[in-house]
Amino acid sequence: MSDDGPGALSDAEVVARLGDHLDYAFRDEERALTALAHASYAQEARGDRGNERLEFLGDAVLDLVVSEALYAAHPEWSEGQLTRARAALVRGEALARRSRAIGLPELVRLGRTELRSGGAGKDSILAGCFEAVIGALYLDGGLEPVRALVDGWLEDGGQDSGRDAKTAFQEWAHATLHRTPSYRVSRDSGVDADEGRFTVEVHVDGEVWGSGVGRSKRVAEREAAVAALARRDAGR
Question: Contact 17/103 with Cβ under 8 angstroms?
Answer without folding.
Answer: yes
